[in-house]
Structures are given as structure tokens and as C-alpha cells.
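Quick one before lunch.
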Amino acid sequence: MVIEIEVNGKNIKANKGDTILETLYNNGIKVPTLCRMDGFTPTGACRMCVVEVEGKTDLIPSCSFPVDESLKIKTHSTRVIRARKMLVELLLSNHPDDCLYCIRNGNCELQDLAVELNVRERRISGDKSKLNSDHSSPGIIRDPAKCILCGRCVRVCEEILDVSTFDFMRRGNKTAISTSMNKDLNFSNCINCGQCIMTCPTGALHEKTNFDIVQDMINNPEMNVIAQFSPSIAVSLADELGLRSGKDISGILVAALKRIGFDKVFDTSFGVDLAIYEQSAELADRIKNDENLPMFSSCCSGWIKHMEQSHPDMIDNVSTSKSPQQMMGAMIKSYFAEKEDISPNKIFSVSIMPCTAKKFEAQREEMTHKGVSDIDVVLTTRELVKLIHLYGIDVQSLDEEKSDAPFNNRSSAGKMPAVSGGLAESIARTLAFHLTEKELTNIKIAKLRGTKERRETYVKIGRQQIGFAVVSGLKNANNLIKEIRDGKSDIKFIEVMACPGGCINGGGQVFTNDDKALKNRAKIIYDLDDKEAINVAHKNSGILELYKEFLGEPMSEKCVKFLHTKYTQRDVLL
Ligand code: SF4
Ligand code: SF4
Ligand code: FES
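Model of the FE2/S2 (inorganic) cluster complex:
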């Protein structure tokens, strides 16, 4: 029902049941917020969104107050602006004054609010926080001194991830965000997904950066420095680099990475095709033998750590195929090294991913062969942007370049797992080939696409109807696992991505609050699938060549040695 309320002396339309804040936004009136998050129930914790409501003594947090006909509101009265300014001044009173050196300098909501509210002097001085930063995790750094207690990380980790690494501890001016028993992050159940970084308004949470070692290696003439970049990066960076958006910019990324000094640049889409080919062969074997079903995907390293610590009884149900990053890494230091006659010790392998959990995955013990890691360093999308700026690369002036041989072919399926649902769809296509040696009649599986965080469908392969499920956000995965335990599901393959929407919304991506940007990233991927001729991993000529020359058959001994891994129960503080 549409009603009218008075805002700043004018009548505006409002939907009954909406909050004041939603109504203001719908009418183009901007009110600052800090603790509020789209799609979450408001907590009213920060009070930055306060407005003056006629007849009320106190200012009202607009994010949690519903509209009704009688409301007369002032959004920017002197009293309201003073109150918001005072809140920012209080937050700054014990904040470290190191904005120039802060990783979020220029991209910090607290900094933006100080500018917006014209805070130009320190009127309130509080004791500076003495809390130490925590560098223990391979992916995430916590700097509690910069925490403004908005609670956004707590809620994302609990309500989307179902992990609940963080909570509030103590009260009053001693309140802080803490892990279980206030231990370092590497002792906690954190899965390194980085979703808390994406929501944190300040520099209190950020990725651990590996810049320096990459620069050192690029400058070392003894080393062959090789980069691979994830397909999800090529669809998320155009805007950030000032290029025309809505386009896959793989060719530009190859050119930029070459200018920076990488000796070879590979597109991880090849590794994705390899993972699809091998993983669907593994699924075909399990279906033929009716064992360890349903099979869970293994591409998402956040999900893998969660499974090891929360569902260890499901370990045999998880595909043993490594993630595309690790398969690519293993092939670079074996097949490629052999072909080019380079010692694996002289290769420094850098993987550029949309994900902080990949930093954790790369350093797992199981991802090494005779002491040589498949991947030496993982950079996030955000770190790549900084590297491009650091080396003064003007991407606008670059011509597209092709990625290097022998990993320079891909199918459109090699791009699809960037989006939640894309892996399951690509697996279904190649599973049909492994089971029947025929192609699926309809390769576009619409029911596995879309924005719903849980999707399921049955695909007819030969005489069988094979169930596929897609979940993103681990809360949805946990719900599905419960149904499986209760015997309520006959699904055969389950794609799990920890981040909602998949890697296009990974915790290492460039910051965006824009839903449209995410939809646009998915659209680029599916448009490629519509336009391109090779849509299945098993028709990628480079993959067929790799099996013929080096790996043998899928699931061969050599495949198991290089492309598969194992998982173990992980005891963590919950
Ligand atoms: S990285 Fe993910 S799991 Fe770890 S604290 Fe942040 S949101 Fe939670
Ligand atoms: S760490 Fe960041 S997101 Fe979490 S409460 Fe502090 S400021 Fe908010
Ligand atoms: S945004 Fe409304 S109280 Fe924080």
C-alpha cells in the first residue's frame, strides 16, 4: 500500500512496511549509514542514519523505523547533522591516525563520512586502541585498532557463511570484536573466504599481501616468473581499470602482466577445463560404481576447509580433484617445465584469484610435490589492480594479447565456474560425454542459472536422470547437507561455493556494493557461452593434447599424482 509522508517539508510516496531509510533511498534522499547491510535485518547499532521525527524527543535510526502516514521527518536539520558529526568524531577519537598508510586509504567509509560531514579537526581525544593486529592467517589480517564495532563482519560470517568466527566481547568502552577464546585467526574456524573484508567499512580487515616477493622474483633473472589469472577477474576489472565495462578483458590482462615483467601468462580457464574434465570423469566413475555419492565439488577452498572442520564424516563424498588453480600450478611445474626444460625450482608461480581462501589453499601441505609447491604466491584481484598501478601500466593503450602456449586454449565452459552454477552446468556437459560418449542435447541448463542461492535440477544423461544441486553461501550448503543426512535428497553432484553468487563475488574482488555489477559479471560469462563455438571442456584441443602427451587417461596414476589431493579432519576452536 502506498502512503505519503512529509520529508524536509515536502510530501513523498512511501510503501507501508518499508523503513524510513528505504523510503528515503527510493526518493533519492541520501542518509549515511554504517552498520546497515542490504538484505540483513537492521540492528540500529551505529545510529549514523538518525533523522528528526516530529513529536519524538530522541533522534530516530531511520534504518530500523517503519514509515506511517503521520510521519514528518527532517533528514539534514542542524541537530541531525551535529549528531552524525559527533558520532564520526567519537569514532575517530581513538582511531589510529595513519590513514596515509592504511590499505583502505581512498576507499574507507569512515574517511568518506569524515569528508561528507566536514570533520576538519580533532575535538575529542580518546585513548588510542592498544589492540595488536593479527597476521597469523595466510589470507586475512585483522587490525582491531581500526575496528569501529559496526558488527558487519560478525553478521556476514554468521548469517551467510554459518561459520561465526567473530563475536562481540566485553562491554562498554572495552567492547571489541574477537574470535573464539580471543585466539589468533589461524587457530579459529575462519575459512579465509574474505567476505568479512568485503563488508568491513574500514581497514580493520584486509588481505595479507604478497607484493614484495612477487617484485623480488620479477627482478631476479634466474627465475621464470609465471602468472595465471582466474576467469572471474577478467569480467570484474574493466570498470576499476577505466575500461569499457560489460566485457571480458583477458587479452588486456595478459598484455598488462607481460608489461609488468611476468615471463609467461596463462589464463586459468585452461585449468578450469582441466578440472571439469577430470572431476566429471571422477563423478562418472562414482555413478557407475554407486559409491561416495553425492559428490561435492572441490573448487572452492573456503568450502573445503569448512567441510574438513564441520563435516569430516563427508570427506569421502568430496571430489578429490584439485581446484583449477592447483591443477594449473601442478601442470606448470611438471608438464610445462618438462616441455621447456626448466627446473621446477626455477619457476615462481603466481596465481591471481578473486579469493583470499586461495592463499590458504596454496600453502597446504598436500599441494606440494617433493617440497615444491604447485603455487608459490596468490594475489587477489585488488592486489593485481595495485600492481598494475605500481608498474605504471596504462591499460587503455594496450592491445590485447593471447595467453601463452601450451595452455592457451579454453572452452566457454572454462569460464563458467566463475559464476555460482557454472561449474555444475559444465560438469553435466562433460559427464554426459564420459558416461555415454555423446553430447547433451541441450547444453544450456537454465535451472542451474540465476541468483537464487540454492538451485536443483535433474539432467537426462543416457537412461538416467541425474540430480545436480548448486549452493552458494555456506548456510545453504549446511542446510542441504542436513537434508542429505536425513535421506531427503537423491542429488548426485553438488556444487558448493562459499561466497554468495560464486567467485564473481569472491572475497578478493574489487569492492562493490552494486548488485548490478555482479549481474553484469554473470552476463558476460553466459554471453560468451552463447557466442563461442567450443562450449565443453572435453573439446578443448589443449586439454586433449595434455592427456595424450602427459597425463594419459582421466583418473590415471599420473592424474592422481598431479591432479588429485586428499582432505583430513581439521580440529579448530569453534
Ligand atoms: S574470512 Fe570468512 S570465515 Fe573468516 S572471519 Fe571472514 S567471513 Fe568469517
Ligand atoms: S572489523 Fe570491520 S566490519 Fe567488523 S566490526 Fe570492526 S569495523 Fe565493523
Ligand atoms: S545504519 Fe542505521 S543504525 Fe547503523
